[in-house]
Amino acid sequence: MPFILIVDDDVDSAMALKHIIAKEGFVVAAAANLAQARAEIEKRMPDVILTDLMLPDGKGLEIFGEEPAPANVQMILMTGFASLETSVEALRLGFKDYLTKPVSLQRMKNILAKIPRTGDLKDEIDQLRKELRNLGRFGKLWGTSKPMQEVYDQIAKVAPSIASVMIIGESGTGKEAVAQTIHDLSTRRKNPFLPINCSAISPQLIESELFGHERGSFTGATKDRKGYFEQASGGTLFLDEVTEMPIEMQAKLLRVLETGAFLPVGGNTLVQTDVRIISATNRDPMEAVEEGKLREDLLYRLQVFPLCLPPLRDRKGDVDILASFFLEDLCRSEKKKKTLTPDAYEKMNSYHWPGNVRELKNALHRAYIMADDEITAECILDACPLPVGAKSKRGREITAGMTISEMENRLIDVTLEYCSGNKEAAAEMLGISVKTLYNKLKARPDNPSVPG
Fold first, then answer.
1. On the chain, which terminus has fewer CB atoms closer than 10 Å, C or N?
2. Structural domain contains residue 357
């Protein structure tokens, strides 16, 4: 039976937690300081350590000294002093999650219910590693490059845990595929995985989408509706483009993550939920905080485990693997066999793919449609919006010394040109919502006229 050690100098709080944990079927012990905690560990190594941050003889982060916790011990931090520095240090020392004091009892029960058993997923992860060696595949992800193997290692470590994950990467790098793979390797994999694009939902509707509503709560609410938090209970909620969520909504999201409960729109009865949050952003989270786009306290909660994805241009050798996989999928769905010629592979490897994996997939699809039995370099050249070393019709090339804003504007223009002015298609290729694309065009100093 799993053994949980509580380390807290607040005797009343520790005894209350001990009672709750024991009722959930765990063997549990309590310690009031680091010395007592280490004495308990000498007797028996816990499966879970639930520790306060500030203790009379040091910090809860120091239970194992400066060494990380053993791999088979699940570490959870309790703190009333949440900060980014604390979160990073806790992660370095092996902590998987943290609870803000006063601890929500319902959230504690949810965590206990999802504590993974160390060996539960070992066989499955080992099988995925074998697939990586043989096929260049890891879950929903493809590639054998060193940067991607490092990503696979991080996924293998965090997936079986209860930690919230924030995926950071450029548009088109495969953030949703990473989130799905984390879910598929977790103890929640038999329950729902629901992806939500926060930028694609109207600010007026996002609260109803997340938390649901009761009939008559607003015009058009003709019946009760369950929100994503209730639909995904027991599973994983993937919040894509989380920095685009309205700031007032972020406060409500933070409250749900800390308490495990929410009120549907128009409701007056709290609904309990148990979801693991995986979020994603294509921007620097700290810059989003500084710009007022993301609450700092929400960042601490979401970024317990940050995971950075490399752009396709840094994944040497993966273009061939990805192109072969996408082509095989196209041949299967279109029921027509086509092949890539050697010069086509060469052309794809010479291109910088500013739209990353998504752009490669879309370009290959277009080349597949244009080609006969063989997809040649010429087909690839025609399918790419801006070949290496070339200029578009408007002469918009990317050069050293340009600002990020200038690069973004030129990428938008090139993509719009490639999509013949179709903003919906361009937004999909760029990995942003149509609304975000319109806002970016509107915000330009000269507000240029764009086709479409």
1. N
2. yes
Residue at a domain's end among 259, 283, 308: 308
pLDDT tens figures, 228-281: 999 998 899 999 999 999 999 999 999 898 888 898 988 888 888 889 999 999
What is the span of the domain harbouring residue 322? Answer: 314-384
- 124 and 185 in contact (C-beta within 8 Å)? yes
CB 220 within 8 A of CB 266: no
| Tokens read off for 200 | 């694609």
Which class for 164: exposed (0-12), middle (13-18), buried (19 or more C-beta within 10 A)?
A: buried
Looking at the structure, do residues 25 and 74 belong to the same domain, yes or no? yes
| Tokens representing residue 161 in the block | 């845990």
- The reply to whether 7 and 74 lie within a common domain is yes
Give the Å distances, CA to CA, from 86 to 97, 251, 279: 11, 21, 20
Cross-strand bridge partners of residue 305? 165
Per-residue pLDDT, 292: 92
Give tens-digit pLDDT for 436-449. 888 888 887 655 44
165, with CB counted inside 10 A (0-12, 13-18, 19+), is buried
Using the CB atoms, write b or e for 305-316: b if 16+ within 10 Å. Answer: bbbebbbbeebe
CA angle 160-177-310, nearest 5°? 95
